[in-house]
Amino acid sequence: MSDHPESSETGDPFATERDENTEDMFGGPLVPTPVKKDAAYTVLARKYRPRTFEDLIGQEAMVRTLSNAFATGRIAHAFMLTGVRGVGKTTTARLLARALNYESDTMKGPSVDLSTFGYHCQAIIEGRHIDVLELDAASRTGVDSMRELLESVRYAPVEARYKVYVIDEVHMLSTGAFNALLKTLEEPPPHAKFIFATTEIRKVPVTILSRCQRFDLRRVEPETLTPHLEKICRLEGAQIEPDALALIARAAEGSVRDSLSLLDQALVQAEEGQSVSAEVVRDMLGLADRSATLSLFENIISGQMPEALLAFRTLYGFGADPSQIMGDLLEYCHAASVAKVLGSEATRLPKEPAQRVAALGAQLSAGTLSRLWTLMLKAFEEIRRAPDPAAATEMALVRFCYASDLPGPETLLKRLQNGENLLDGGPSGGGIGGGSGGGISAQGAVMRPQAYANAQPQIQLNTFDDVLALIAEKRDIGLRVDVERYVKLISFRQGAITFEPAPHTPIDLVRKLSARLKEWTGQRWLIATEGGGGAETYREREIREKAEALQRLRNDPFISGLMTAFPGVEILSFRPKPKPVAATTPDMPMTENRDEFSEKDDD
C-alpha cells in the first residue's frame, strides 16, 4: 500500500527519491545546507513549510482542539479555516488531509501525530493522491463546476480512508455554487470530508458556516515570529542582526509567509559571509529610522515646533513614507500609554526605545495621551487622503506642537472653579507638553491667578433669569432677542454657561454674549455650545407656559360657564402673572423693557 516502504523504517520519506536540490522542501530534516549557485533555489516559505501540527507556530489553540477531537473520535465532516494571508490556512488544510487519512504500520486510524510519515503522506503532500482533491475556488466559481465535483462525492475512496475535498479561497464561489453545496455539506456521505480555507470569512454565507467547524487562525505575534526567523537563519547559515529580524517580524503584520519572503529578500542584501544589519533591512523595507522617529515624538511632546519640522524633513529626505512616520508616532503614543499602566516590558519595543517611551509616558497623564492619540489618528487619515502627504504631515506636526501648550479639560475646570481668566491664558498644565509653541511665560503663570483671585465680580448672577434681567436692564435689545430665541440652556453657574444653539443662531452670539457679560460684571465668562437635545429657548418656554396658562383659564368653571352662556366667545389675549426675577444688585431696579417685549410678542 505504501509508495515508499522505506519511510516507516528510516523515518525519512524522501530517502529514495529526493535529490539534494529539494532537501527540505516538503518536510525533510532541518539541517543547514549551503545552496549551490547553479541549483534551482527553493524559497524559504516553501522550504520550511510545516510538516506536523507541532510546527505550526502561533496556532496552539487550534492544534489543541484538533488533537482532542481526534483523540475522542469527534471529527467533524467539514472544517472552515479562516485568517489573514500567510498564517497557515492551506498548510493546515493539507495537514488535516494527512491526519484524516493517516495510516502506518503502528497506527490504523486518524491521527494528528504526523512525526512519522504514513503510507499516504507523500502522495498527499505532492498533490497527487487520488482521494484528496485540492481545488481553487477562484478558478471554479460556477455552479456547473460545483455540481461536477459533488457528483464524485457519492463514490467511495479508492485507496485512503476518506475522500477529502480541500477548497481554497472558498468565498470566491458564486451564490449558485454555494446553494448547490448546501445539501451535500449538511448530510455528506460518511466517507467524505470537506476542508475550506478563506481570507474573507464575511463573504461566506451563514448557511455554509453553520455546517462547518470553524477555526480562526490567529496572526503570529512578533514575539513568536522572531525566534522562528532566528532558527531558520541558523539552519541556513546566515548572519543577521536581531534588530533586523525584529523589523521583519513587525513588517510581516502577523503573516509567517510574508516574514519568510522578507527574510529571503534580506539575506541577499549583504555580501556572502557578512551580517545583514538593521539599517540595511530598514532601507529595504522603506522604514524610517526608528530612533529618529522617537526623537520626533519627543519633540512633539515638548512642543518644539522647529525641531519637529526639521526632524520630519530629514526623515522624508531619506525616503521615509509620511504615512509610515505617522504610524510610528501612533505606535509610540500607544506604547507610552501601555508603559504607563503595565510598565516598559509590555510595550513590545526593544529595551532602549521602551525605556525612553516609558519615561515620556510617566510625564503625561492618561487623558493627555488619549487626546494625543486622537489627534494623531485624525492626522493619519488626513495624510492618506491629502494630495501632498508631506505637507499634510507638516501641518499635523504644527497642530501637535501648538496643542502642546493648551491645557486639558481637567485643568480648565480647576482654573474655572478658582475664578481664573480662561481667555487670557494662565498656567498651561495638563497639555501634551510644556514646550515653546506659544505658551505662557512663567511670570504670567504665577501672577495672573493671584490677580484673578483678588478681582471680585461687580455683579453676581445666580441664575440664567438674572442674565436676562441684566440684559434687559442694560437695554441691549438685539442681544436680548437673540438670547431669548436661540439659547437652549443646558447648564448655568457663576462664570460659565452651556447651551444648545437653536437653528439659525447668529455666528457671533457666543462672542457677543461673553463680551457683554465681561463688560457688565467685570468677570470672564466661559460660554460653550453643545448638542444636548430636549432643551428649549426662553421664548419657547414662554410660549409653552402661556399656552398652559390659557388652558388652565379655559378649564376654570367660571370662564367655562361664561363661554357656554355666550357661544362664539374666544379668549383673544391675556397676560399671565409674571414670575418674580431675582435682582442682580441691591440698587439695580427692573425696567419696563421686558413688559414692552411681552406686549409686542403677545400682539
TrEMBL record:
GO terms for biological process: DNA-templated DNA replication. GO terms for cellular component: DNA polymerase III complex. InterPro entries: AAA+_ATPase, DNA_pol3_clamp-load_cplx_C, DNA_pol_III_gamma-3, DNA_pol_III_gamma/tau_C, DNA_pol_III_sug/sutau_N, DNA_Rep/Repair_Clamp_Loader, HLD_clamp_pol_III_gamma_tau, P-loop_NTPase. It holds the Pfam family DNAX_ATPase_lid. Its EC number is 2.7.7.7. SUPFAM superfamilies: P-loop containing nucleoside triphosphate hydrolases, post-AAA+ oligomerization domain-like. It catalyses: DNA(n) + a 2'-deoxyribonucleoside 5'-triphosphate = DNA(n+1) + diphosphate. Residues 75-221 form the AAA+ ATPase domain. It comes from the Bacteria. CDD domains: AAA (cd00009), HLD_clamp_pol_III_gamma_tau (cd18137). Residues 1-30, 577-603 are annotated as: Disordered. Keywords: ATP-binding, DNA replication, DNA-directed DNA polymerase, Metal-binding, Nucleotide-binding, Nucleotidyltransferase, Transferase, Zinc. Belongs to the DnaX/STICHEL family. DNA polymerase III is a complex, multichain enzyme responsible for most of the replicative synthesis in bacteria. This DNA polymerase also exhibits 3' to 5' exonuclease activity. DNA polymerase III contains a core (composed of alpha, epsilon and theta chains) that associates with a tau subunit. This core dimerizes to form the POLIII' complex. PolIII' associates with the gamma complex (composed of gamma, delta, delta', psi and chi chains) and with the beta chain to form the complete DNA polymerase III complex. This is DNA polymerase III subunit gamma/tau. It comes from Asticcacaulis excentricus (strain ATCC 15261 / DSM 4724 / KCTC 12464 / NCIMB 9791 / VKM B-1370 / CB 48). The lineage of its organism: Bacteria, Pseudomonadati, Pseudomonadota, Alphaproteobacteria, Caulobacterales. The gene is dnaX.
